[in-house]
Amino acid sequence: MQKVNWFKLAVHIGALAPLGLTAWDFWRGRLSVNPIQDITLLTGWYALVLLTLSLACTPLNTFLGWRWVLPLRKLFGLYAFLYASLHFLIFVGLDYGFDLALIWLTIVEKRYVLVGFSAFLILLPLAVTSTKGWMRRLGKNWKRLHRWVYLASLLVIVHFVWLVKSDIRRPLAYGAVIALLLMLRLPWVRRMGGKLRSRLKGLFKKGAMASV
Ligand code: HEM
């Protein structure tokens, strides 16, 4: 029998629970007077949080040696795409009633929608090519293609900054976290991190030896 990956199970539960709760609140009329805006904001926020968690996996392994988070990266990414798709469907379906002319007008007129849409157009092929089959098919190009998630994450922050009316502290806080996670991928930062980690490991070993 296949061993259960409890971390993966926790991600499935953690990612799907908000969907169930939000759907239940929407269904029961327990949201505000503008439930469509509520679920637009909630799905957008869940998508951003999951995208950030997906970007955090590699640095957590590079700097802390947490190999167990690597298999979660794809899961976080796919759930981020699930919420971004729901977010987009709520916009085109519930909000704009699939009126394509009006939707297109809004996309080109409202710059935050245009940037959100651009981020979504990047996440779409990344989600489609997240399978082992596509990894084999694309070979070296697969990694190159999936680096576009960096641009998508920056576009989402611009989307978030441009859509808030006044208080931009929340989008800027997410922007700072995303910027840090991208910086931790720079080759010289990774090298420094690797050196730091092996030095700490060495110190720890010496400390453990001394206490024996
Ligand atoms: C597909 C194209 C997209 C459209 C049309 C769109 C549209 C919107 C709209 C209308 C709002 C609410 C604005 C308001 O009522 O004040 C919003 C908020 C938001 N969207 Fe998008 N969006 C898109 C893509 C994305 C993507 C791909 C992400 C993240 C991966 C995202 C993350 C967010 C966030 C974080 C918020 C603010 C949530 C909050 O204030 O808590 N959006 N978006």
Topology:
Layout (H helix, E strand, L loop, with lengths): L5 H22 L7 H30 L5 H26 L4 H10 L1 H18 L3 H7 L1 H7 L1 H16 L5 H15 L3 H25 L1
Helix pairs in contact: 1-2, 1-3, 2-3, 2-9, 2-10, 3-5, 4-5, 5-8, 6-7, 8-9
Bound molecules: protoporphyrin IX containing FE.
Outline of the structure:
The chain has helices spanning 6-27, 35-64, 70-95, 100-109, 111-128, 132-138, 140-146, 148-163, 169-183, 187-211. The chain is an all-alpha fold and 212 residues long.
Bound ligands, each once: protoporphyrin IX containing FE
The main pleated sheet reads as:
none
Helix content: over 70%
* Percent of residues in β-strands: under 5%
Poorly predicted parts: none
Shape: elongated
Q: Look at the structure and give the mean pLDDT.
A: 92
Describe the structure.
- It is a single chain.
- By secondary structure, this protein is mainly alpha-helical.
- It has one domain.
- It has 10 helices and no strands.
- The chain has helices at 6-27, 35-64, 70-95, 100-109, 111-128, 132-138, 140-146, 148-163, 169-183, 187-211.
- The radius of gyration is 20 Å and the shape is elongated.
- It starts with 5 loop residues before the first helix and ends with a helix.
- The mean pLDDT is 92.
- The protein binds protoporphyrin IX containing FE.
